[in-house]
Amino acid sequence: MKWVHLFWVFFLLTAFAYSSSGNPGGARTVAPRLISEKPKLDGVLDEQFWQEIEPITDFVQQEPGDGDPATERTEARIAYDRHNLYFGIRAFDSEPRRLVQSVYERDGFMPADDGILIGIDSNNDNRTAFIFEMNTVGGKTDIEVSEEGSFNINWDAIWNYAVKVDDEGYTIEVVIPMFVLRFKPADEIEMGLLLKRRIRKNNEEVNWPYFSRDYEFGAASQYGKMTGLQGLERGKDLEIKPYGLAGYSQTVDDSEYEADAGVDVKWGITPNLTTDLTFNTDFAQIESDELQVNLTRFNLFYPEKRDFFLESANLFQFGLGQRAEVFFSRRIGLRGFEEVPIIAGGRLYGLVGSTNVGALVMQTAESGVHPGENFIVGRVKQNISRRSYLGGIFTNRTGDTSMEDTTFGTDFMALLDNNLRIHGQISRSGREGVSEGQWFASAGILQITDRYYWEFRYDDIGENFEPGIGFVARPDQRTLTGFGQYTPRPDWSGVRKLSFSTLFRRIENHAGNLETRTINPGVGITFSTEDTIQAEYEDTFDWIPYSFEIAPGIVVQEGDYTNRSGLAMFESSRSRRFSVFLIGRAGSFYGGDLKGFAAHVTFRPWAQVRIQADSETHWVDLPGGSFSSPVARIHFSYYFSSSLSTRVATQYSDLYDEFLLNFRLRWIYTPGSELWFVYNEGRQFESLDPSLRDRAVIVKLVHNFNF
Hints:
- This protein has 707 residues and is mostly beta strands.
- The chain has 3 helices and 47 strands.
- A hairpin with a 2-residue loop joins β10 (160-166) and β11.
- The radius of gyration is 26 Å and the shape is globular.
- The protein starts with a helix and ends with a strand.
């Protein structure tokens, strides 16, 4: 397959030769008002300076009518002083009783609610942005955007807003500290800006400035501009965040009291370069991983949940998400699901000139049979033109001879006009005693617009590619993927768009044997109500090179299999008080049959209560035996306010005889500072007598000192 590697090199050369440096669409500008008095954050724009600012009013629809005028008037005013940006937004609504208000919590799913989204490209580089989203009951979320399409939803910033609902709609007053943003010092600073409003009664989204449906809210190259910002200061840009934890844990054989403490320190060395230090890193014992049923012979992927590793996580990404990742932070301080104490560590990340840099060093302690280990990661991404980059990564793990490894790699991405994206990457791991099959390479081209989405990609994962701080679900494969989707918007009453798609994937090993081939066509329809129905057919050839246990006592034998199945899905609009997601599947499966059904139900009897129920079951009949795999989850949440909430979550897997209970009380007593009370319990009814597996009670306090 030497031609594939030549093809990858060709991509690299042509991408930068044709990389666009334009900013399509022609930017709109606004000059925020410099003020000397701080507004009272109460959701009422009664300060004199608000009245003196000329509002932005020319919001334009992106959905459902691309380029149509907004159906409701919005007035947005912007002010600033040396240390903060302020937004005063008046959202008129002719039927305020129909406002959708469902998300109270921090970092909830906002698009189903009425509300406002503010996007700020503070570096004015047309590729990165910070997103601040809020609704009409105090819920808020923030997102870090890189390369216009990579979203880090785990980024948390210290900012605040107040909202007031009245007979004419609602008013939102926002304060965003300058230390949250990243910008280059200058006498006059310019930043990119997006203002978005969601009007849920009409399933409508309006933007300032206008840009077409081909672009999402993370497309910083389409933003307008805030100009003339002068005298901005970020303060000392120092955060000290200690935590204290006390608790009691119990297992079948033992019980103990525990207490722990640690601290994270964040310091902005320069306006664009930040260092994070951690001592006795917080393991975030707040919620359990979701139970999963594995119907394949490959490893499952569990996401990172520890705060220290989440901020700026996009910078360190390298590889294929959840398939072959060169850096996977769960490898640090965790062996499977067993915690290994982290003594200390540090990160450095940010922008130096036009180069994004990142570095991480962590040291774990000796724990049981596991020796202490050291982890090093280095990442660099050189910005080229306005929307492209060339990057590199280095990882090193030492201390445990069975896991020691050095991995390095390089990657590039070119984002051209009209969302045409060309990307490629190559890396090599380096375990002692292994000399072949340690390479990973990938190259692809894709384009995503409102009407069509197409992609071609080739991935090559060596049989011995095993990065020491990475994750590989399926080694020894060469994968060719082609995907095409066409989404016309016919002028039919009640219909927003149709969808016709086809996926083709071929996977062979490095001996040239075909392992998997998949053809997956599908059709769908999205209604004006945002309800969606979809149907798919999947035809998969799968060669199983060795037998594996798919369920306790049930084995799939090696050999060739052709699995054919049909799938039907229905999803209702999430803006309703009662919403559902239903999916059913039936067909052949490894010489037998499989039927599957999953349901996700959300019910909000009133604004402060949310009940979520999930059920997923597969009924599998194989030559080696039959089994079912029901998994059920129920979440009950009550919000006393946007800063005080409680949740009870239960999970149960019948196949693996696991029951998990998680109760948590969360109080955000000031932005960035929280108090948690958590109760966790695990049971296995059939394999243990008594059934209790483990139990823990935890109280945790995290306080943010900001200077």
